[in-house]
Amino acid sequence: MPTDLALGIHDLSFSTTSLALSHDELSRHNGTDLAKYHRGIGQRAMSVPTADEDIVTMAAAAAAPIVRRHGADRIRTLVLATETSVDQSKAAGIYVHKLLGLHPHVRVVEVKQACYGATAGLQFATALVHRDPDQQVLVIASDVSRYDLDSPGEATQGAAATALLVSADPALVELDRPSGLFTTDVMDFWRPNYRSTALVNGKESVAAYLEAVEGAWRDYSAQGGLPLEEFRAFCYHQPYTRMAFKAHRQLLETCGVPADEAAVERALAATTAYNETVGNSYTASLYLALAALLESEHDLTGQALGLFSYGSGSVAEFFAGRVRPGYQEHLRRDAHREAVDRRRAIDYGTYRELHERTLPTDGGRHDLPHQTQGPFRLAGVRDHQRVYEAA
Ligand code: HMG
Questions:
Q1: How buried is 366 (Cβ within 10 angstroms: 0-12 exposed, 13-18 middle, 19+ buried)?
Q2: Predicted confidence band at 2 (pLDDT cuts at 50, 70, 90)?
């Protein structure tokens, strides 16, 4: 097997929902100072799914442009990472496989570890491509984050899907070999099977995330990773965008480097454009940060990027990627901006109604209203089965 083969992200596409609730509207409802949202947590809006949107419709919408551009012949694995699973047995990726019209010779699996899942998928994918460089792997992260109404977490909700095509000789980002890992059993954020909203120990979750930054970095260094000064920019999991800034200060402290705020800003500012308006998209969030960075005005050719993935519970990974020459020709800047800009702003009452909705569980036939602007929809549930269709 070749050892010097470049492996990594060949294409990246994301989708989000058709609706958005702004933090202006949320603060009008709950009286919170808007500056707490805009400056304190760094959030301006959150994506809200319509009744006929879910992780499957978002995942298929994110992946469809990749299949259109590259064809599907070489895709032999589809990994869908989510913590908003729609079934305890069947992998949501099988619905996506059908909506995308993929051939049957594909292994389809779902992976879960809170917001870390997609990174696990990405690492598994590079191993599969290393084994057979003619194959490509579609790794899709898709999540809807939901907290209780009027809870501190409510302002950090969101929804999106990112699709990554992993291949040899990638057009966007080549992944380096060393990875720093950090796992510890902590109850900072979790969602028991009987709940549709997450439970969270907010302050503990922030501390757990920061501890994981230090732990993953120390392991990354021990594994022979690049020194801090080699990195041009850093993408962090962004449950809210200011968390990335806390994380980076933690990394600098771990390395014994004084936190110069202008340098922190320079290293992170270009990574927040999508997450500040989409909200926490859990496992998709890190890759929305990467999309924002690659699509920024900076020329990153040949530069090393640090990526930090964190999933509560918790598992974290620090790894590096190097931006490939010519990457800018393969970006999807216009489509991504349109996906964010075309969302319809909703008022608090509409948001609350959608938040409280649940799908019927009586096994009857229930058709859902056509509300999405996206290419795929959940048409309804019949005999306990979800029915998806092209919109
Ligand atoms: P909170 O109690 O609403 O807010 O909880 P706060 O009082 O801590 O304030 C937040 C920040 O706003 C603070 O800044 C305040 O000073 C500032 P900081 O001290 O952090 O630098 N602030 C203001 N700034 C300007 N003007 C003002 C003002 N007022 C306050 N007027 C919390 C915040 C994040 C805990 C809450 O939103 C929450 O519980 N969120 C959900 C959990 C979460 O996102 N945790 C992050 C780490 S865990 C993670 O990333 C994993 C996760 O994605 C799940 C997964 O892995 O699946 C969540």
A1: middle
A2: low
Question: Pick the catalytic residue: 237, 248, 276, 295?
Answer: 237
**What residue spans of the chain are helical by DSSP H?**
23-30, 34-35, 55-70, 92-99, 117-131, 202-222, 241-254, 261-268, 275-278, 285-294, 333-341, 348-356
| 357 domain-assigned | yes
pLDDT at position 181 is: 98
Global model pTM greater than 0.90: yes
Is the residue at 297 inside a domain? yes
Question: 115 catalytic, yes or no?
Answer: yes
310 Cα nearest atom in ligand 1: 56
CATH number at residue 165: 3.40.47.10
* Residue 267 belongs to domain spanning: 7-390
Q: Is residue 2 part of a domain?
A: no
| Residue 83 bears catalytic tag | yes
Ligand 1 is surrounded, with C-beta below 6 A, by 33, 35-36, 39-41, 83, 114-115, 152-153, 155-156, 188-189, 200, 202-203, 205-206, 209, 237, 239-240, 243, 280, 282, 310-312
> Looking at the 3D structure of the chain, how many domains does it have?
1
Nearest atom (ligand 1) to Cα of 312: 56
Q: Which helix (H) or strand (E) holds 387?
A: strand 385-390
The reply to whether 101 falls in a domain is: yes
| Confidence tier at 4 by pLDDT (50, 70, 90) | confident
Alpha carbon of 201 to ligand 1 centroid (Å): 11
User: Cα separation of 293 and 305, whole Å?
Assistant: 10
pLDDT at 261 (0 to 100):
92
354: Cβ contacts below 8 Å, ≥ 6 apart: 19, 48, 49, 50, 51, 346
